[in-house]
Amino acid sequence: MGCLFHKGRQNSNVTKKGEVKLEGYSWDKRKTVNLKDYIIESIEDGEVLKMPGAVNGQQFVIQNCKNTSIFVFDHANTVTVDDCINCKIILAAVKGSIFLRDCKECLCVVACGQFRARDCRKVDIFLCCTTQPIIESSSSIHFGCYQLFYNELEEHFQQAGLSVFNNNWSSIHDFTPIEGEHNWCLFPDTIKIQDYVSLPASQELQRLSASLLAERSVVPHTWGLHKTPSGESCLVAFFSDGQQVQRAKAFINALKIENPYCLLLLSKEARMQGVDAEHVFRTDSYNAAVQRGLVVGLHYSGPNCIHSCQKVAVSIATATGSTGLVYVSTNPKISQKQVDSFFNFANMQLIA
């Protein structure tokens, strides 16, 4: 125990004149947060637009709104939407959970880590969700694939810790199923998001180049688990080189032109080890490639699918100089097993 009267080191907060300098703390420098900036409530027959930087990763609340369009073009932490009626809501990128409670006759376009809906009725949702979406005590809920673009959206996904390829929009779990009834369903293939919502014609959004067109969406359009595979199944995997996301998107766009009947059913981004690669690819040739980083996997299905995927993959690899950084199924007899192995592994990784 030290002596109370020990001089020790001179107090650095005392000036030569004997004046005491107040020590600064990190929390003294934090920007003051006005909670009202992150709450939208009791708006009726209105329109609310939040531009990039307005939310900036904070928690957000929407409640007691009616006949109102709400557009949040920013990333948030978690979002709760309570007691809203006949509202159209776009939430561009949410790191954690989105909770919908006691809402009815609403349209939502949302990307999030987790999605929960409770006590909701007649809600249409175009969704990108990392984990399995859950509904409870809800009915007449329709799901479709998230489609949205604006200039900063890809950056907002990264800030929210979301992958554009990890989208379980069609894998719904209903906590309260009713025998003989369906509380939810997936939109028909012919439905487009533009049929349900349009963006405001404001100069601000024009500067963002905002769009709901599928061909411009940051999140690739997937057909989901409900789509029955027709023809061959094919696994396409892009190995990390810092440009694998761009190469995967270029491949998706090129294959739509090469073979429009070859459909993208699922996509995943996951980290693999050598033993995982051997199980999926049936060879150790890709053990080193998976050590580079995240692997983007695509599940395609359709007539002449493997040949079309191989042709486009060669074209993309040649154009980008990335030969050896992509895998495409070669044997239709085992391609479905490869697809199942990769996506089962990726899903288990997300759960863990």
UniProtKB/TrEMBL annotation:
One Pfam family per UniProt: TBCC
GO molecular function (one): GTP binding
Residue intervals of the C-CAP/cofactor C-like domain: 29-177
S-palmitoyl cysteine lipid attachment residues: C3
Major site of localization recorded for this protein: membrane
Any GO BP: post-Golgi vesicle-mediated transport
Listed SMART domains: CARP (SM00673)
Localisation: Cell membrane
Keywords: Cell membrane, GTP-binding, GTPase activation, Lipoprotein, Membrane, Myristate, Nucleotide-binding, Palmitate
Membrane-topology annotation of the record: Lipid-anchor
GO cellular component: cilium; periciliary membrane compartment
Binding site for GTP: G96, S97
InterPro entries: C-CAP_CF_C-like (IPR017901), CAP/MinC_C (IPR016098), CAP_C_sf (IPR036223), CARP_motif (IPR006599), NDK-like_dom_sf (IPR036850), Tubulin-bd_cofactor_C_dom (IPR012945), XRP2 (IPR039093)
Family per similarity comment: Belongs to the TBCC family.
Role played: Acts as a GTPase-activating protein (GAP) for tubulin in concert with tubulin-specific chaperone C, but does not enhance tubulin heterodimerization.
PANTHER family: PROTEIN XRP2, XRP2 PROTEIN
Record's protein name: Protein XRP2
Lineage of the organism: Eukaryota, Metazoa, Ecdysozoa, Arthropoda, Hexapoda
